[in-house]
Amino acid sequence: AQKVTQAQTEISVVEKEDVTLDCVYETRDTTYYLFWYKQPPSGELVFLIRRNSFDEQNEISGRYSWNFQKSTSSFNFTITASQVVDSAVYFCALRGNNNDMRFGAGTRLTVKP
Amino acid sequence: GAVVSQHPSWVICKSGTSVKIECRSLDFQATTMFWYRQFPKQSLMLMATSNEGSKATYEQGVEKDKFLINHASLTLSTLTVTSAHPEDSSFYICSAREPSLGGYTFGSGTRLTVV
Question: Contact A101/B34, CB-based, under 8 Å?
């Protein structure tokens, strides 16, 4: 069975603070993919990153960075110098061998000015 | 890039009527599409996997006769909510896998309100 846990339901920060969103996953597949999506109030899902299970290199994209640790089955997402426009619900997701994607419960991030 | 178009973006219908939601892959062929449902302030829950030319695979607890899925071509999957009830009101999102990129593209979602 595949499972994604995002323990933080809601996070509130003040603009320019750094914030880390946690994601822990469970899978028995040896090959799998991990994703992060952003869902603004409008509802559409915005793709942020995909990581395959063989690539543990951390990635940085502008103010966004991701830390993939297979040893702890975690794929955490950090936003540096947060901005009000970062306010959204963020989902971590896992895709295994069966090709369907399982989502975590989501973390609602509010960035206050 | 891979684009998935979902239509309509929102719909209001009366209880007992049926509503069809379309999901189209615009610039690629998708043999497999996925339908998700998202209740307010909740996560996306996979409802079913739509396979072109064959029957959809439904997740446990999803009524096949209520949520009819048809994947008649490589670019179109439809979800029909039959005999809709207020509890079916939700946000429905489809996604498709773009084979060459290996990624998943999501439609913009359909907000269904049953009154």
Answer: yes
Q: B44 at the A interface (CB within 8 A)?
A: yes
pLDDT of A85 > 80? The answer is yes
Could you say which of B32, B41, B93 has the minimum Cβ distance to residue A45? B93
Q: Count other C-beta atoms under 10 Å from residue B53's C-beta.
A: 9
Phi, psi of A12 (to 5 degrees): -125, 130
pLDDT digits (tens, 9 = 90+) for B55-113: 899 999 999 999 999 998 999 999 999 999 999 999 999 999 877 766 788 999 999 99
Whether residues A99 and B44 touch (CB distance < 8 A) is answered with no
Q: Are B4 and B105 in contact (CB under 8 A)?
A: yes
